[in-house]
Amino acid sequence: MPATIITGLQWGDEGKGKISYLLCRDADCVVRFQGGANAGHTVIVSGKKLKFNMIPAGSAAGAMPCIASGTVVDLDEVFEELDLLRSLGFETKFMISRAANIVLPIHKKLDAMIEELRGGRAVGTTRRGIGPTYSDKALRAGIRIEDLLDRNALMDKLEILKKVHDLEIENSDKLIEYGNRIKPYVGDVELFVNNLLDEGKKVIFEGAQGTLLDIDHGTYPYVTSSNTIAGAACTGCGIGPTRIDEVVGVMKAYSTRVGAGVFPTELFNELGERIREIGQEFGTTTGRPRRVGWLDMPLLRYAVRISDVTWIALTKLDVLSGLDKIKICTEYDLRGKTVEIAPPSVKLLRDAKPTYIELDGWGKMTKEDWKAVSERGWDALPDEAKTYIETIEKLVNKPIKLVSVGAEAGLEVMK
Ligand code: IMO
Ligand code: MG
To answer: Whose CA is nearest to atom 16 of ligand 1?
Structure first.
């Protein structure tokens, strides 16, 4: 499929990095279209753990990375990750949109300040300056990549920004230096990507965060500051909606959330801790422990609906091995009414009582066992695991075509 969007169906951390890597193995180009260095996309190839915050993780498979205008860019991260790609032996053909806004140190400072002000109501942001950068962009006071290439324009804009925030702004020399470094890569990503699609080239749009963190369609205000649903690939990269061929929704075999906000199926017991430990559910970007819970079908149905997902990639199935029973929330009881598909309204979710079904677990499996399963394919999965996957497919009414059973590339089963 020439134009494929990868989107997270939960609260982020679904394993989009690995899925992007797998889909990029025969792709020409991979694009980040929203978010910034709040994303933490990990790929493990040949035992080497590669972490990406800004550059799309699919580039580790050799696809040309692009950063489109809908993102907010942390240039330090970009330079670091370009070095990482170079160390992997990739000639770093890379393009960044001249229109992307950049994150300044002042935005990170503001991010932290606003979180302090919120006190007990803090969002639990990654403090990467995401919200303040997007808000300056919406104010039309943001600094764009192209501004770093024009000292006079930059000075004017910084002067306004200084007045808007009534805070000191870092000196412009450093920004001009960044401009010089980024200059060879600056281009019209939007036209470039459209042209690639005209030529029949394969382009992967690598989403960051997840549906429930979308600023309009998530659990506002406990969300990130960008649109994260599939449609954001169109606005964030200037791609017409009819050009998209398929949308791959990535979901984890259970739920996690990092940061504050409602979480109807959260586990507060020892089992939650066990899954956190086995699944290594600690933030890639911040190291924070993630909150853990069962799958939540009313929210997943919603996520699948608003991104019109074509098929699902299910990740981290291996983490659930050795559990006696596995639960799935199939619907909510909401003040006596049954709810099967739920918009992630904080008010509504606060009163939602999950109704669970319980499935049998499968036995403990080692990494070697999963390797054998990956080599032999779908039929080699334990029967209970197959039932779990097929139950999810039925409940969400979409096919699960890829099941990841380990963090490393190679540990997965195609259906
Ligand atoms: P990937 O791409 C998980 C969460 C933060 C916080 C909220 C707002 O790895 O899936 P922000 O810094 O964006 O203003 O924080 O969003 N968050 C993520 N959680 N994975 C991510 O990205 C996230 N990016 C932001 O924890 O609750
Ligand atoms: Mg993350």
So the answer is: 224
Convert the pLDDT of each residue in 211-256 to its tens digit.
999 999 999 999 999 999 999 999 999 999 999 999 999 999 999 9
Mean pLDDT value across the chain:
96
Residue owning the nearest CA to atom 11 of ligand 1: 125
Confirm or reject: Cβ of 110 under 6 Å from ligand 1: no
How many other CB atoms sit within 10 Å of the CB of residue 249?
A: 31
Neighbours of 180 (CB within 10 A): 10
Do 115 and 108 meet the contact criterion of CB atoms below 8 Å apart? no
Tokens, residue 187: 């281009």
One-letter amino acid of 42: T
Q: Is the CB of 31 under 6 A from ligand 1?
A: no
Is residue 59 within 6 Å of ligand 1 at its C-beta?
no
Measured from the alpha carbon of residue 283, the closest ligand is 2
Tell the residue number behind the tokens 């990841």, with chain if given: 404
Task: Please list the active-site residues.
Answer: 13, 41
Tell me, using a 6 A CB cutoff, whether residue 39 lines ligand 1: yes
What domains are there in the chain, each with its CATH number?
3-96+187-247 (3.40.440.10), 101-182 (1.10.300.10), 251-414 (3.90.170.10)
Of 250, 190, 261, 279, give the one whose Cα is nearest residue 224. 261
Identify the pLDDT of residue 90: 87
**Is 171's pLDDT higher than 90?**
no
pLDDT digits (tens, 9 = 90+) for 333-365: 999 999 999 999 999 999 999 999 999 999 999
Q: Could you tell me the distance, in angstroms and rounded to a whole number, from the CA of residue 260 to the centre of ligand 1?
A: 10
DSSP per residue over 215-248, as a string?
TTTSSTTSS-SS--STHHHHHHHT--GGG--EEE
389 has a pLDDT exceeding 80: yes
> Are the beta carbons of 407 and 368 closer than 8 angstroms?
no
For residue 371, report the phi and psi dihedrals to the nearest 5 degrees: -60, -45
Q: How far apart are CA 396 and CA 212, in angstroms?
A: 16
pLDDT at position 283: 85
The answer to whether 245 and 5 are in contact (CB under 8 A) is: no
The torsion angles phi and psi of 292, rounded to 5 degrees, stand at -125, 145
Residue nearest to atom 23 of ligand 1 (CA): 209
Q: Going by C-beta distance under 8 Å and a sequence separation of 6 or more, which residues neighbour residue 361?
A: 320, 321, 322, 323, 324, 325, 326, 384
Q: How far apart are CA 381 and CA 393, in angstroms?
A: 16
Q: Does 286 score more than 90 pLDDT? A: no
